[in-house]
Each structure stands twice: as structure tokens, then as C-alpha cells.
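Researcher: I'm preparing a figure for a lab meeting and need a structural model of a single chain. I don't have an experimental structure, so a prediction will have to do for now. The sequence is pasted below. Please return the structure as C-alpha cells so I can convert it later.
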Amino acid sequence: MSTSSNTMASPKLIVTVSDSAMLNKIKNAIKMLRGVSSISVVTPKKSDMDLACEDVKAGRVTKWNSVDELFDTVLK
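Model: Understood. Here is the structure written out cell by cell.
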């Protein structure tokens, strides 16, 4: 008779938090619950559009007077 280990993954609960200031308090509250074996925090990656908008807000943009000027700069 062979013994097999239980290979089923543990169930996961995903909680989305809108106020990042509350993250530590919520994390500590979940730790107090019986049966919680681990807690991990995953922050979403910013999209390319979000990063581009941040660049614009910070003034990290380049302006050209014409398409020819753009290509002259890019192809150098």
C-alpha cells in the first residue's frame, strides 16, 4: 500500500484594499483569525499608460517642431 501526500493547494482569500493606509491594520486583523497560515501583500504593477501619464505630469516629455526633427533626433 503506497502513501500519497495531499497535493491540493490551500484555499486562498483575495482581499482588495482601496485605502493603502489601512493595509497594515487589515493585515494584522487577518493574522488574528484562526486557520490563517500566511499573508502576502501584492501591489499591482503600473500599466505603461499610467507610467506615461506620470512622465507627462513630471515634465519628462520631449517636443519637436516637426516630424523631420523627430526623425533626425531618433535616427542619430
